[in-house]
Amino acid sequence: MELQTNLRRIILAELLVPLALFIFGAYHGVLQTMYLSGVIRATSVAGIDYYQGLTAHGVINAIVLTTFFAVAFGYTVVSQQLQMQVSIAGATFSLVLMLSGAVMAATMIFLGKASVLYTFYPPLMAHPLFYLGLVLFIVGSWIPLLTWIPVYLRWRRENLDQKTPMGVVGIFATFIVWQMATLPVAFEVLVQLLPWSLGWSSGVNVMLSRTLFWFFGHPLVYFWLLPTYVLYYTMLPKLAGGMLFSDFAGRFTFMALILLSCPLGLHHQFADPGISTTSKGVQGVLTLLVVIPSLLTAFTLAASLEYAAHQRGGKGLFGWWNKLPYFNSEVWLFPYLFCGLLIFLFGGITGIINASYSMNNVVHNTAWIPAHFHLTVGGPIFLGILGGSLLIITGLLKKPVVSGTMAMIVPYLWMGGTFIFSSGLFMGGLRGEPRRTNLGLTYMNPTSPAYRPDWWVPAHMGMVGGCIMGLAVLLYFIVLVRSLAAAPVAALSSVPFLLPTSEPYHDENIPAVRNFAPWVVAAVLLCAAAYYVPIHDIVKNGIPTAPGFRPDSPSAVNNAH
Amino acid sequence: MSINVFEKRALLGAVGAVAVSLTLIAYATWGMGISVASCIPLGSKPFTEGSFTKHDGKNYEVHFVARMWAFEPNVLHVPTGSTLDIYAVTKDVTHGFEIAGTNVNLMLVPGAVANGRVRFTKPGIYTILCHEFCGRNHQNMNARIEVGDQFADLSVEGLPASEGMKLLDAKGCLACHSVDGSAGVGPTFKGAWGAPLQLTGGGTRTLDSALFVEKIHHPETIAIKDFPPVMPVIPLTDDEIAQIEAYLEGLQK
User: Fold this and answer.
1) What residue ranges of chain A have pLDDT lower than 70?
2) Interchain contact, B182 vs A275, CB within 8 Å
C-alpha cells in the first residue's frame, strides 16, 4: 500500500525543512572548531556571535533535526507496517505547530535575542518568543503518538494472532519516552521561564529548573537514539543480506528503554549543589542498568551481521568479516548504519565513564562531554538521520540516489572526521579544556595571560576533524540536491515505496515483552521514586529565586511589572 | 520457544559487566573516599564576599564568589601540601568552578553553596576555570592557584575589591571592558590610563580625566578605532567618576 498523498507531502516537509536549517547548524559546527583552536580569534564572524552560533548549532542539530526526523520516520513506519491510514488532520496540525515553533525559536536566535545555548539554563534569560517557540515545538511533537494510539488499538483488535511489528514497537517506545520526558521541561518553560521572561514573575528557582531540564535532557538522548535502533533492528540485517538474530532482543531493548530512560537525569547534575549524594547515587546506579539492553543490542546486531556474512559465503570464526557490503553502492545505506555502530562503541564506553559517579569529576563540563556526544548523537544517530532521510525522500519521490557511490562515501568520511575531532576533545577535556567556551580569545591566545599551550594539539585536532565532518556534510548535500533534481524512475511509479524490513531468525514468543502497559506503569513509578526526594529537597528548602540576566550584561534584567 | 543460549550468555555478561562497574564505583566512593559534590542545604551558609581562614597547620577554608566575569579571590598563593576546603557561590548567573588537574569540579547555582576539598601535593600553577556559559565574556573568567614551597602561608590577591572596581562592576562597565587585558566589546582598561587611544577616522587622544568624563557623559562623540560605537550613557556622579579614575590609574602594571 502506498502512503496517503497528503501524508507523503507532510513527511517530505518534515525531512527537508530541518535539513535546510541544518546547513546553518553544520556551518556553525565547523566554525566553532576554528574559534576553539584560535584560528578564528574574534567574538563574531559575519555578524553572528560565537555563543549565538553555538546556540543555533545545538538547537537546530540536536532538537529540531532529530525531533522532525523521529516524527517523519515514525509516520512512515507506523503507516507502512500496520498498513493503516493515520490522521492527516493530526499530522498537519503537528507539522504547523512544530514548524512555527522552530521558526520562532530560530528567528530569535538569529536576531541575537536568545544566545543562551540549547540548555537555556536560567538565570540567563532569552526573549519570550524563544521560550514560546520551544513550547509550540514540543506540543506539536506530542500529537503524532496521540493520533497513532487509536490506529494501533484497532490494528490489535483486527490482528489478534500477530505480534506488533518490530518497527512499530520501536517507534511507540520512542514517543512514549518523549511524552514522559517532555512533560517536566514543558512545565519548566511554561510555568517557570516564560512568565519570568515576560516580567510576570520576578525570579526563578534555578535548581528546580535545572532538575526539570535534566529530567528531560537525558531521556532526550534515548529519544534521539530509539529511531536509530529501529533502523538497526528492522533494516540493518536485511541490508546485510540476512535476518535479525533475535526478535526478543529488539522487543526487550525497546521496553527496557521505556523503563530506564527517565529516572536517571541526575547523572548530569553530579556536580550540582543542593542534591544529596544518595539521590545522585541512586540515579547513577539506574544509569548503569542501561548497559544491559545496550550490550544485548551489540550482541544481537553482531550476530545478525555474522549470520548475513555466512549467507554470503563467509567462513570461520573471523573470516566472515570481509563478506559484508561495506562498499557496495547498491546498498549505500549499509555503511550509514555500520559506521554508526562502530562510532557508537566508543560513544557507549565514554558514556559509561561520564555516568560513573565520582569519575564524572574529571570530565564534567570539559571538552570531553562534546567529544562523547559527537560519538552518540553526532555518530550513529546523525548517520541514521542522514541515511534514513535520503532513503525516505528518494523513496517517496520515486527518484534515484545520485550517486550511490557518493552517498556511500559520506558515512566513512564522517566517521574519520568524528574520530579525529573527538580524540582531540577527549584529550583536551582530560587536561581541563572547558566545553562551549570561545577559547581563541583567551585560553588559545598566546598573548593572553590565560594561554594554555597544552590545549593546542587537542584543539587543532578538533578543528581538523571538524573540517572533515564539514566536508562529509557538503558531499551529502551534493547527493541530496542531485537526487532531488533527477527525473523520477519510471519503473518505480507503480511500485509502492516500502522500507526494507528484516525477518527474525530466532522468533521467540516471550509474553513479557509483548505489552507496553506494564512497562509504562513501571517507568512512571520508577520516575516518581527516583525524583521524589531530590525535588522535595529543592522545593522545601525555599531557595531564593534568581532574577534574569542577559548574556551581554552583568546587571540583572528589571522587567517585573 | 526459549531464548537462544548465546543470547542468554550475552545477557548474563551484560549483567556481570554492570555488577563489576558498580563494585568499582562503590570502592572508589567508600574505599578511596572520592565522591561527587555533596549537599549543603539550599539557602544555608550564605556569604557575599571572598575570604579565607586558616584552620590549623596547612588546612585552610577558602570562600569564592563568582560573578560575571571573575572569581574573587583571583590569585591564591598556597604552600605545597595544603588542603583547601572550598566553598563557592555565585552572585548572578550559573557559573562553573573547575580546578584543572584536580578532582574539584563544581556548579555554582544561584541560591546554593557548592563545596569541595582539594589537597595540593605538587607545586605548580593551577587554573580555576568557569566552564559553564555565563555570558559574552565567559571565556575571560578564570583565576589561578599558585602552589609552591616558597609560600609559608596562604595569601590571596584580588581581595578586597577597591571602591572603583566595585563601581565598574555595579554599573555594568565590565560587560564590555576587561581589567586584565583580555578582549571585549570595548577596549580593556588595563594599561589604558594615560595611554593614547586611536580614534575612528584617524587621530589619537590620550585617555585622561577630560576624555574620560566626556566619554561617560557623551559616549557618541568619541568613537574608538576597531570598536563598535555602542557605548550607552552611564549615569555616574563626579565622586564616582573620581573613584573609578583612581582605580584605573592603578591598573598600569
Assistant:
1) 542, 559-561
2) no
